[in-house]
Design goal:
Layout: H1 10-22, H2 28-47, H3 52-64
Length: 71
């Protein structure tokens, strides 16, 4: 995870769910930034597996920004 700290709370989950509802067109540079965030979040989750809010945020991020397949 390095210097990047990822914090996901209920407000973030709400916003991600709303973003999913409107399903905007995601531009490539935004998708690249989302991928960086997803990688940081994945590193955080691997060390904090019991944080269900972070897990849900990670899955929503993958879904909304089309970051699949994910290695």
């Amino acid at each position: 995870m390095g210097d990047n700290v990822v914090i996901v709370d209920d407000g973030d989950i709400f916003l991600l769910k709303e973003l999913r509802k409107i399903s905007p067109d995601i531009r490539p540079h935004v998708r690249e930034e989302a991928m960086k965030l997803a990688l940081d979040l994945k590193a955080y989750i691997s060390q904090n597996i019991e944080n269900s809010v972070a897990n849900l945020g990670f899955l929503l991020l993958l879904s909304i920004y089309g970051l699949t397949p994910f290695n």
